[in-house]
Design goal:
The chain has 16 helices and 17 strands. The chain is of the alpha+beta class. The relative contact order is 0.09. Bound molecules: adenosine-5'-diphosphate and magnesium ion.
Length: 489
């Protein structure tokens, strides 16, 4: 029977992501060479990184700890008996001729990550596994017309590969997944999460199938995706390409594709060998790993607060709107700063407004992050408290105090208030005096007010603020003004 397909709506997309997370350890995975980025080529290399005969690897305990942390954060099953394998292949940037990785017994199994879509919809993306492995070196083909160069600084740098189940359905979902994963590794402080610099690398496996079909279609794997936006674009482009082919009655070949960020298109890199030809076998130079209960408990005790938990705290304990809580927890450095502020003030909403508003706008303008922000959180809390206590008003706080603090982050808010002569005067007689003067100055406006033109209050308020040089509490002034003007009836 032939099925006539005439609509792209008959299809659904199936995507699985493999993300390499580069761990921010000081030394490499299996030797003491520095794992740092940006050094002179081939500076961080010893016999182990070079794969010289007889050199033996030694496992960096940090990578096991970091993998466990990520596994716990993602609710994976931690595989307490696991081991490393050799993945054999030949390439110039892999001098040993094999990569140390984990094949059959990865350190973490299962688990999931909750994502949020623009529509507000939430979805749990199930994980297949997380395994530990080492990176290869880097081949440089564009420095010389005849020769390729090899930089082995990266050879042996530790990676975690996080593999999802094929259950992501769109480019948007993939982007949301990467945003959440990046957030998590930053909260855990195991990776800087910078995709543009290669600390997080993503391969996307994409296939389509008829809606309702249980079987997976042939997939294409897109490589070289160096930003979240590009992952989304590549997936969207690839889904469209595959649907077009199917509608023309053609088959999807299982291919490895390259993504060109300039054209936004994918193109074949190589056709994928379906057979597993890496000849994996257990790494004989490293002992199997046994994670004891004590070790697991130790790592559990070291776990920092995670974004999801913090979101709950902000919305439930501090009563912040979900929107605010999402914005604040999106960036770890912002969340950390906010938490410092609320150590010193209990006006959580105003603290949130300051962090997301005045401070964030300033940092954006300067292209700074919260880590670069020099004003101590305690001083921001002090400003909030002074507003709360009606010692200063919002305008003074933003336009004068905050500006002065930015210029001189070491100043104390209390001192600045007196230096800038900012404190609101809490003098009822003086305020009454201003009001009487203003009302006397505009008798016809007073008359208009009594004939129902209540809007003139704005004019009176402006005049009172002018007379007092903005140093009266607007709320009190407004209240007293209405009292006085009513009493003139
Ligand atoms: P490989 O050994 O080629 O890396 P895996 O079985 O480990 O393949 O799967 C790699 C990724 O591809 C996983 O994220 C998985 O969910 C995804 N994947 C597997 N098959 C498909 C498919 N048909 N369509 C989309 N994604 C798939
Ligand atoms: Mg793979």
């Amino acid at each position: 029977m032939t099925v006539i397909l005439d609509s792209s709506h008959d299809f659904e997309a199936v995507v699985g992501l493999e993300v390499h997370v580069q761990l921010s350890t000081q030394s490499k995975a299996f030797c003491s060479d520095s794992a740092s980025f940006g050094n002179q080529p081939n500076q961080n290399i010893s016999a182990v990184s070079l794969g010289l005969p007889g050199a033996l690897p030694l496992c960096n305990e940090k990578i096991i700890r970091y993998a466990t942390k990520l596994g716990l954060a993602l609710n994976c099953k931690i595989n307490q008996h696991n081991f490393f394998d050799r993945k054999n292949y030949f390439y110039a940037d892999l001098p040993k001729g094999y990569q140390i990785t984990q094949d059959n017994e990865p350190i973490c199994l299962g688990g999931s990550l909750k994502i949020r879509l623009e529509s507000g919809e939430e979805k749990d993306i199930r994980l297949n596994r997380i395994h530990m492995e080492e990176d290869a070196g880097k081949s440089i083909h564009d420095l010389d017309p005849l020769y390729s160069y090899i930089d082995l600084n990266r050879a042996g740098v530790p990676l975690l590969e996080v593999v999802t189940e094929p259950m992501i359905s769109s480019g948007e979902e993939a982007a949301a997944y990467l945003i959440e994963l990046r957030k998590l590794v930053r909260y855990l402080d195991i990776c800087d999460g910078n995709m543009e610099e290669g600390s997080m690398r993503c391969d996307a496996n994409i296939s389509i199938r008829l809606k309702g079909d249980k079987n997976l279609g042939n997939r294409c794997e897109v490589k070289n995706l160096n930003s979240i936006k590009n992952v989304q674009k590549a997936i969207e482009h690839e889904i469209e390409r595959q649907i077009k082919l199917r509608l023309k009655g053609e088959k999807i070949e299982q291919n490895t594709l390259n993504f060109d960020a300039v054209t936004g298109k994918t193109s074949p890199l190589r056709s994928k060998e379906t057979a597993n030809d890496y000849r994996y076998f257990p790494e004989p130079d490293l002992l199997p790993l046994v994670l004891t209960d004590d070790f697991l408990n130790e790592v559990k005790a070291e776990m920092p607060i995670l974004p999801e938990e913090l979101l709950q705290r902000l919305t439930q304990e501090m009563n912040l709107p979900v929107y605010d809580a999402l914005v604040i927890t999106a960036e770890k450095s912002m969340a950390d700063y906010f938490l410092e502020v609320v150590k010193h003030t209990s006006n959580y909403k105003m603290a949130a407004n300051w962090v997301m508003g005045n401070i964030k706008s300033y940092l954006n303008e300067q292209q700074f992050t919260f880590e670069d922000f020099k004003v101590p959180a305690q001083e921001i809390a002090q400003i909030i408290n002074l507003i709360d206590e009606k010692v200063i008003n919002h305008h003074q706080a933003k336009d004068q105090l905050f500006v002065a603090l930015l210029k001189n982050p070491n100043e104390k808010v209390k001192d600045l208030v007196s230096k800038l002569n900012l404190a609101l005067r809490d003098d009822q007689d003086e305020l009454a005096n201003f009001i009487v003067k203003v009302l006397a100055k505009f008798p016809d406006k007073v008359n208009e007010y009594h004939h129902g033109k209540k809007g003139v209050i704005g004019l009176f308020m402006g005049e009172v603020m002018k007379l007092s040089h903005g140093k009266v509490d607007p709320k009190k002034a407004n209240q007293l003004l209405i009292e006085k003007i009513e009493s003139l009836k």
